[in-house]
């Protein structure tokens, strides 16, 4: 779910097939270099869940900031093409198990210190050591020694505790010199280089290891084209151009204010008044009758992105542990009606577990996504029914009320369950409840591709202990197939193994794919040029005024 920058040099390895292009957009005319140089922009945002540490951020509110503030080894082109080198000079392997990674010399962190190989190795070791609590820790499971540094609670939220790791560092990481490090994986993994543009793999400056992670995250130091200035909770995050940035994509404007909204309609009104320079997602209230097109004209943008809207189940709650109940709920939802009546045709009904824009994704493999009222009622009866109220939760600072109300009403009408939707005030509060495993009903979720491979739609979401497996779903057969997929000799073979894992996920229904995103965005009159990246977010280095 990450920002990706424009890139031109090829990665040293063959990588995943290109995505279907999600499109770029621009304003009505050429930008003025002089106006841009000292100019500023205001962008819509939401309060991040956690302090800004790359390996501890799994949501888009904080993820966008991190991706603007950091540059990784690899980047993903805006047109959806294959991953390409960014900070990496080269990534070489002869067996897809041992990788020699050489980074470009002379790049800097925002505190002026040089980015070295050890900054990657130290950051990855910190994230992979489970007592540090990094939410993205499982992304390092490919690397040799992970089974010694990362342990998990054997009974979920039960009385047992995770055993202490027997090692503090990954045995598969080794610094060769200031610009070179070696990564040894537990088994050959063809997709590994594709992952390296995701924010979990960003480097950390030496100062990170001298303070508490939350202290660093409130005043973060990255190595990307913008640096941190200040953060006023629930109000504003200020960023400014990092003038010592010397990689390809440098900023054309000077200052970026990320205004943290609690209401998307308020953000839309600011956009219309030219008080907001970019709004990524137009609220559903403005989609009816193409009102947004009339309001914005050429300032309106439309694209498709590898993102899926979901309903997730808190499987740690005994009421939701029967897969027949979960499948019944899924089959009771008329996705076509929701995309037509709520989103006015700007979304598509989901019919697969991975978004079809993703390399390796197979279309139409979600049999639980069909609308079948009779079968839903039969499965509910076999599951023993549902006692009490089923509350569907969502965050109210984005436009989710209408479609979540519609889902709850369909469940109520088609299954006879007392169902309703209930909002939580902010995305940050909502995510805190999700991560604390305190949700008492199904809840809104979404998955925005982190890197272009179907693996990203399986391992984080449905493998036991996955970084975003928030409902604590676990199926040992899925885990085994995913592990076999990771160790497959080629991407094609890997994708076939993941397809088998998905067949089991489809039977268990740990979540409910509801719709594939179509994205409507808008910019102010002063923005003359901009590009959207491969997941539909603003490429801030492209903005010209």
Automatic annotation (TrEMBL):
Solute-binding protein family domain mapped to chain residues: 83-468
Gene Ontology biological process: peptide transport
SUPFAM superfamilies: Periplasmic binding protein-like II
Protein name from the UniProt record: Oligopeptide transport system substrate-binding protein
Keywords, ordered alphabetically: Signal
This protein's GO CC annotations: ATP-binding cassette (ABC) transporter complex; periplasmic space
Keyword check for Cell membrane: no
UniProt GO MF annotations: peptide transmembrane transporter activity
Pfam families: SBP_bac_5
Signal peptide: 1-27
Lineage of source species: Bacteria, Bacillati, Actinomycetota, Actinomycetes, Micromonosporales
């Amino acid at each position: 779910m990450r920002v990706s920058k424009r890139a031109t040099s090829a990665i040293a390895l063959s990588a995943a097939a290109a995505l279907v292009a999600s499109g770029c957009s621009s304003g009505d005319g050429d930008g003025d270099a002089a106006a841009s140089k000292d100019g500023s922009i205001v962008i819509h945002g939401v309060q991040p869940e956690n302090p800004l540490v790359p390996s501890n951020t799994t949501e888009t509110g904080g993820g966008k900031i991190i991706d603007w503030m950091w540059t990784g080894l690899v980047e993903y082109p805006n047109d959806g093409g294959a991953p390409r080198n960014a900070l990496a000079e080269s990534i070489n392997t002869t067996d897809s198990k041992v990788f020699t990674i050489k980074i470009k010399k002379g790049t800097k962190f925002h505190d002026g210190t040089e980015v070295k190989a050890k900054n990657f190795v130290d950051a990855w070791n910190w994230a992979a050591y489970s007592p540090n609590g990094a939410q993205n820790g499982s992304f390092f499971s490919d690397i040799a020694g992970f089974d010694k540094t990362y342990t998990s609670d054997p009974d979920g939220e039960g009385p047992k505790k995770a055993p202490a790791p027997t090692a503090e560092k990954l045995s598969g990481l080794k610094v060769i010199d200031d610009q070179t490090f070696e990564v040894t994986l537990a088994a050959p993994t063809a997709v590994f280089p594709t992952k390296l543009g995701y924010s979990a793999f960003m480097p950390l400056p030496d100062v990170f290891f001298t303070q508490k992670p939350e202290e660093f995250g409130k005043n973060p130091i990255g190595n990307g084209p913008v640096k941190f200035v200040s953060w006023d909770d629930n109000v504003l995050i200020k960023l400014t151009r990092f003038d010592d940035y010397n990689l390809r994509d440098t900023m054309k404007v000077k200052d970026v204010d990320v205004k943290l909204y609690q209401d998307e309609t308020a953000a839309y009104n600011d956009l219309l008044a030219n008080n907001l320079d970019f709004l990524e997602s137009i609220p559903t209230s403005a989609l009816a009758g193409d009102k947004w097109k009339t309001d914005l004209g050429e300032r309106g943008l439309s694209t498709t992105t590898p993102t899926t809207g979901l309903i997730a189940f808190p499987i740690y709650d005994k009421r939701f542990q029967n897969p027949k109940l979960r499948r019944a709920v899924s089959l009771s939802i008329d996705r076509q009606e929701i995309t037509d009546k709520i989103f006015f045709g700007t979304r598509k009904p989901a019919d697969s577990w991975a978004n079809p824009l993703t390399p390796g994704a197979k279309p139409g493999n979600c049999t639980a996504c069909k609308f079948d009222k009779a079968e839903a009622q039969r499965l509910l009866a076999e599951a023993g029914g549902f006692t009490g109220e089923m509350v569907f939760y969502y965050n109210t600072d984005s436009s989710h009320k209408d479609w979540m109300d519609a889902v709850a009403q369909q469940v109520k009408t088609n299954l006879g369950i007392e169902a309703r939707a209930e909002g939580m005030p902010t995305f940050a509060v909502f995510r805190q409840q999700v991560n604390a495993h305190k949700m008492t009903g199904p809840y809104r979720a979404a998955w925005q591709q982190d890197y272009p491979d179907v693996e990203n739609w399986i391992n984080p979401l449905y493998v036991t202990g996955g970084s975003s497996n928030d409902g604590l779903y676990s199926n040992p057969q899925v885990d085994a197939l995913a592990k076999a997929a990771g160790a497959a000799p080629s991407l094609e073979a890997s994708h076939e193994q993941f397809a088998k894992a998905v067949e089991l996920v489809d039977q268990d229904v740990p979540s409910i794919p509801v719709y594939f995103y179509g994205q409507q965005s808008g910019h102010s009159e002063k923005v003359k040029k901009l590009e959207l990246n491969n997941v539909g977010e603003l490429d801030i280095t492209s903005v010209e005024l």
